[in-house]
Automatic annotation (TrEMBL):
EC number(s) reported in the record: 2.7.4.3
Pathway: Purine metabolism; AMP biosynthesis via salvage pathway; AMP from ADP: step 1/1
Superkingdom as given in the UniProt entry: Bacteria
Free-text domain note: Consists of three domains, a large central CORE domain and two small peripheral domains, NMPbind and LID, which undergo movements during catalysis. The LID domain closes over the site of phosphoryl transfer upon ATP binding. Assembling and dissambling the active center during each catalytic cycle provides an effective means to prevent ATP hydrolysis.
Record-linked Pfam families: ADK
This protein's name: Adenylate kinase
Gene that encodes it: adk
Length: 184
């Protein structure tokens, strides 16, 4: 199974992608973790990513795909994956779909975690990462509403999108996510 987990920042994508991957016994691929690893390496790519993320902007499509390429090829060969943190723009969705189609491993299901903006703000402020400042959070929510909406529409027209209520206890949301994938 090849699943993409989408939602606004702080919606629980990584948590629920990890839990779903465990349930499906496939690999969890977190773009956020991959980007943070690249930043920690202090490579030129990592420095560019760090500046972009600190400003609350989205990482360039080519950089995201470069980071994902090896990971997705390996995970596809091992039986499947749950990807969180990408695609974040329509351009990324189109490029990712084209690339995965070339691998003959298209996205099969896209889970969209629906979480209200007020809940997202609260979660991000509690999380306390360096880039989780009120002005950056507000900007990231605005970017998600604009760009994320286009990505959701893209997958909805391809009949791959399933919306899941992302508010509540982690175990309850996880059950909803697993049930959505199993119904798909």
């Amino acid at each position: 199974m090849r699943v993409v987990m989408l939602g606004p920042p702080g919606s629980g994508k990584s948590t629920h992608a990890r839990l779903l991957a465990e349930h499906l016994t496939v690999i969890h691929l977190s773009v956020g973790a991959a980007l943070r690893d690249e930043v920690a390496k202090q490579s030129p790519l990592g420095e560019r990513i760090e500046a972009t993320v600190a400003a609350g902007e989205l990482v360039d499509t080519a950089d995201v795909l470069a980071i994902l390429e090896t990971r997705l090829v390996g995970a596809t060969g091992s039986g499947g994956w749950v990807l969180d943190g990408a695609p974040r723009t329509l351009t990324q969705a189109e490029a990712l779909d084209d690339w995965l189609d070339d691998l003959e491993a298209p996205v099969e299901c896209v889970i969209a975690l629906d979480v209200p903006d007020s809940e997202v703000r609260s979660r991000l402020l509690q999380r306390g990462r360096a880039d989780d400042k009120p002005d950056v959070i507000a900007h990231r929510i605005q970017v998600w509403q604009h760009d994320g909406g286009a990505v959701l529409t893209w997958y909805e027209t391809k009949r791959r999108l399933v919306r899941v209520d992302g508010v509540g206890d982690v175990a309850d949301v996880a059950r909803r996510v697993i049930a959505a994938v199993e119904r798909f």
